[in-house]
Amino acid sequence: MENSKVEEYWQKFKSENNINSNRYEAWQFGFDADLLGELVLEGKKTATAGALKSYQFENVDIPRLGQYNIVLDSKNQPLCIIRTIKVEIIPFLEVSSEHVYKEGENDRTLESWRNGHKRFFINEFREYNIEFSEDIEVVCEEFEVVYR
Fold first, then answer.
1. pLDDT digits over 28-41, tens only?
2. What is the rounded distance in angstroms from the CA atom of residue 28 to the CA atom of residue 130?
3. Contact (CB, 8 A) for 45 and 103
4. What residues form DSSP beta bridges with 87?
5. How many CB atoms neighbour CB 38 within 10 A?
6. Considering only CA atoms, which of 144, 143, 129 is closest in space to residue 57?
7. Burial tier of 41 (Cβ tally within 10 Å: 0-12, 13-18, 19+)
8. How far apart are CA 59 and CA 55, in angstroms?
9. Burial, 103: exposed, middle or buried (Cβ in 10 Å; 0-12, 13-18, 19+)?
């Protein structure tokens, strides 16, 4: 993403933390960038999940361990930098209640996660002209905030 504020934020983080890497991604959470970004800043959200098919259709790499990401708000302003600490690809129906709790959304229950993500994936898959099924593979990522 071309954004001078994002690049400045990254350079400040690198300088203050003696990081040599120039590799990072900058993105917004898909459902509600401001709400979910705020949950990250509050420490309630330490995980996220996306359909593997979405990564494939959008030609986006799945997260890598140790990867740095700049979380953006709805106006593409940096909120914080997170580092990926765990990635697994599992079927939708096998996403654990532990992972769901770490996502920090709604009432943090498996039932509300499944209902909300099913709706989200159905809408997302419409763009690709494919049907949602409960055996889709989901990329489950855990992260830690390393800079704010």
1. 998 799 999 999 99
2. 24
3. yes
4. 141
5. 14
6. 129
7. middle
8. 6
9. buried
From CA 140, how far away is CA 49, in angstroms rounded? Answer: 5
Q: For the chain, where are the alpha helices, taking DSSP H only? A: 4-17, 33-42, 52-57, 97-103, 110-128
Cα separation of 73 and 79, whole Å? 6
Tens of pLDDT along 84-127? Answer: 999 999 999 999 999 999 999 999 999 999 999 999 999 999 99
DSSP code of residue 92: G
Give the separation between CA 9 and CA 14, rounded to whole angstroms.
9
What does the DSSP 8-state code read for residue 143?
A: E
d(CA 124, CA 16): 38
